[in-house]
Write a structure and sequence with these properties.
Strand content: 25-35%
Number of helices: 2
Oligomer: single chain
Distance between the termini: 41 Å
Structural class: alpha+beta
Order of helices and strands: EEEEHH
Radius of gyration: 16 Å
Largest sheet: 4 strands, mixed
Amino acid sequence: MLSNFEGIIIDVNVKRVKTIRLYISRNGQAKLSVPISCPKEEVMDFLHKNKEWLIGALERSKARIQKEKQKEKRSANRS
């Protein structure tokens, strides 16, 4: 399920896990794993506490993806 947190789209998965986990996938999408019994208020508090990390991680991921694309372009031009 996609959710919007202060303008950031996050793919939220409620599943059998013990802790909340926030990470950035290889394709640059923010993902959040949430325990089944976790209240929404706790999830929102977690996101607010980790907002700066999330923004920085998304920026680093975007830069990494752009760098990989540029590298691919250079390789294709050499062929």
